[in-house]
Amino acid sequence: MNKIRWILVLVGFAMLAMVESRSTFILTDKPECSLKRQQSIDRMVSKLLIFGKYGQKYATNSKELTKLCADITANTNQLNKFVVECLKDQAQHMAKIMIYSIKRTLKTYCSKKTKKQTKLLESGSCINTRVQKIDCMDKFSNSSKELVPYKIENEKIKFICCYHVDMMRCFEKQMEDLSCLDDDARRYNMELIKSIVTDLANFACGEYTEDSDRCDNLKLPKDKYNPKEKFTSRVRSMFFVLLHVVESIDNFAIDT
User: In 119, 148, 220, 247, which residue has its Cα 20 to 30 A from 18's Cα atom?
Assistant: First the structure.
C-alpha cells in the first residue's frame, strides 16, 4: 500500500498532531502558531470530535441544535485558519481533507429535518448522561502515542488501524450499555461516530479491520523500542497525537 493511502487513513480518523519544538509540519517560528494557540486548537478539536472529557454535548431540541451547529461552524473555521497559517504543505493538505470530512459528516446533523436528525435529537438527553465519560477516543490516543518510541516505521499504521478497531468496539459497547437508547438511536449514533472517524480508515487499513482477525496477534517488538523517543507534547487530542506518530516514522512523505 503506497504512502498516500497511509496518509488518508490518518486523516480518516480525523487525526492530526504536531511536535511542539521540532516539528517538520508546524511553522513554530511564527508567533501566531504558539503553544498557547496550539492548546486552544487542541481543545477545539476535542469538542468537534464530540466524545470524551472535553467533548461537546448533543443538542436535544431545535434551538440547541441551531447553537450547536453555529459553534461547530465557528470552530471548524478557526481550525481551518490555524491549518492555513501554521501547517506546512503536506500537513496542510492532510488537515484540509480532515476538515472536509468533519463538515460533510456534521452536515447530516445540522441540515434540514430528517428522520436521522430527529432520532439524534431525541437521543440527546440519553447520550448526554455519558458523552463526556465515553473515553474510547482517549484510549485510542493513549495507545497511539505509545507507538512513538518504536522504530518500526510504516508498521505503525497497522497498529493505528487495530487501535481504531478497538475504539469502534468500545463505542459499540458504550451504545449498548445505554439502556435509554432504542435500536434505531444506537444505529444512527454509531453511523455518526463511524462517519467521523472511519470513512477513509475503511479504505486504507486493508485487512486490519473489525471484520478480520489480523489484529489479534499483532504485538509491538520489544527490541525495536527506543527509550530516548517519547511522546512529550502538551497537545493530546486525536488531531495532534497522530501527526506526532507520523513524524516518528523515518522518511515519511506524501507521494505526489
Answer: 220
Distance between CA atoms of 49 and 227, rounded to whole angstroms? Answer: 31
Contacts of 250 (CB under 8 A, 6+ apart): 151, 153
- 18 located within any domain: yes
- Which cell goes with 251? 522518511
What is the residue-averaged pLDDT of the chain?
A: 82
* Residue 244: other Cβ atoms inside 10 A: 25
Task: Say how many C-beta atoms besides its own lie within 10 A of residue 200's C-beta.
Answer: 20
10 Å CB burial of residue 14 (0-12, 13-18, 19+) is: buried
**226/190 Cα distance (integer angstroms):** 37
141/211 Cα distance (integer angstroms) = 22
Domain count, the chain: 1
Q: Is the pLDDT of residue 31 over 60?
A: yes
Instruction: Assign 26 to helix, strand or coil.
Output: strand
- Domain span at residue 118 reads 3-247
Collect all residues with Cβ–Cβ distance below 8 Å to 84 and sequence separation of at least 6: 92
Contact 128, 60 (CB under 8 A): yes
Q: Return the percentage of the chain with pLDDT > 90, whole number.
A: 35
**pLDDT band at residue 180, thresholds of 50, 70 and 90?**
very high
pLDDT at 201 over 60: yes
SS3 label, residue 115: helix
Rounded mean pLDDT, 57-80: 91
67: which residues sit within 8 A by CB, 6+ positions away? 59
